[in-house]
Amino acid sequence: MKDRGVLTVVSGFAGSGKGTIMKELLSRYDNYALSISATTRAPRPGEEHGKHYFFVGREEFEEMIRKDELLEYARYVENYYGTPRKYVEEMLGSGKDVILEIETQGALLVREKLPDTLLLFISPPSVQEIYNRLKKRGTETEENIRQRMTRAVTEAELAEQYDYLIINDDLEECIKQVHETIQAAHFRMDRSMEQLKKLQSEFAQYIKQ
Amino acid sequence: MKDRGVLTVVSGFAGSGKGTIMKELLSRYDNYALSISATTRAPRPGEEHGKHYFFVGREEFEEMIRKDELLEYARYVENYYGTPRKYVEEMLGSGKDVILEIETQGALLVREKLPDTLLLFISPPSVQEIYNRLKKRGTETEENIRQRMTRAVTEAELAEQYDYLIINDDLEECIKQVHETIQAAHFRMDRSMEQLKKLQSEFAQYIKQ
């Protein structure tokens, strides 16, 4: 029987490179799956239902909220975004390590519902480096950057509640570290109690002989 | 500045292969160091002071106990065995990941003194397999094996307090898993708070500008 997968939430400051890291994990290893969000916003050209998002109507989304079918959700501008529990559970059950890339507040909500969720925070080595990376994109105005930085202050506070902080100084190193950290979680004692109990009862059997 | 090393206690049932795993980790990676025990027993031929053991007199050992210079100690038959804190601290300070191979009771004592110690328990996949491996050594009588099994019952109970359980089914897989688990510990949030606080204060600086 395949071991149940590990659910990992990855968050990080703008410019942390977390998008690239996720992409690399998915292409290098076959044990990972990305969670798919549900949203009420309209599909953009090229976006597929069940691949990029689950596109649902507002009523359907609000029904999912009422039925506690979402691990977390938030409203941006006019639209809802959330993480359907069912899809995540199916992937975990099939042995996939599911990665959820969401913000800190959502991450903490997910862990309330599924306490063995691994919370991983990724950061560039310094705020100067965050600034440089955002600047280098060429698409961000100074005002944009300031807004992102202001939001990062809250994220940096909530990051204290995460399990791991991984600094993205060298991309290759960072990919390796994220992979190792997720893989290590497979062996946590809280996930292994069943195995240990089995050994305990086998010992008891042996001693009785 | 080099990151402080991770202190890992590795325990496991007789036949778990933990000795082989430690040897492989030390020969494959240069970040590991084994802790060296102090003992009051006489050196055997070929054993060197400061390499295999720190050989000390009984009075000296008891003085170390009184001065709280041991992370744990135990008495077997006529002799003391213990883990000098100073050597472990020096190795950790130089950035080495220190591995301590001791029994469960000692392991829990170490974690009381150094709460960020990682406790790793290694087991063969089944009690039948433990029996087979001990039998295969050819040096163990049935009575010996029974004694080891009886001791394993207590160990299996104390193992519940460990952080990780790693099953040694395939040696290569197991070496990799132990390595990944120890490396992941470098990024635990309790070890990274200083780095996070630094980022938080850099953000505060940036926002004030």
Describe the structure.
The structure is a homodimer of 209-residue chains. With 209 residues, the first copy, chain A, is α/β, with parallel strands linked by helices. Chain A has a domain of 143 residues: Rossmann fold. Helix content of chain A is 49%, strand content 21%. Chain A has a five-stranded parallel beta sheet with strand order 2-7-1-8-9, with helices on both faces. A four-stranded mixed beta sheet of chain A has the order 4-3-6-5. Chains A and B meet through helix 5, helix 6, strand 9, helix 7 and helix 8 of A and helix 5, helix 6, strand 9, helix 7 and helix 8 of B.
List the total number of helices of chain A.
8
Write down the secondary-structure element order of chain A: EHEEEHEEHEHEHHEHH
How would you name the CATH homologous superfamily of the domain at 7-35 and 95-208 in chain A?
P-loop containing nucleotide triphosphate hydrolases
Roughly what percent helix of chain A?
A: 40-55%
Gyration radius of chain A, in Å = 20 Å
Q: What is the tally of beta strands of chain A?
A: 9
Q: If you consult CATH, what is the topology of the domain at 7-35 and 95-208 in chain A? A: Rossmann fold
- Placed side by side, the strands forming the largest sheet of chain A appear as 2-7-1-8-9
Characterize the overall form of chain A.
Answer: globular
Oligomer: homodimer
| Reported CATH architecture of the domain at 7-35 and 95-208 in chain A | 3-Layer(aba) Sandwich
Residue stretches of chain A low in confidence (pLDDT < 50, at least 5 long) are none
Distance between the termini of chain A: 29 Å
The level-1 CATH class of the domain at 7-35 and 95-208 in chain A: Alpha Beta
Structural category of chain A is: alpha/beta
Largest sheet of chain A: 5 strands, parallel
Mean pLDDT over the full residue set of chain A: 94
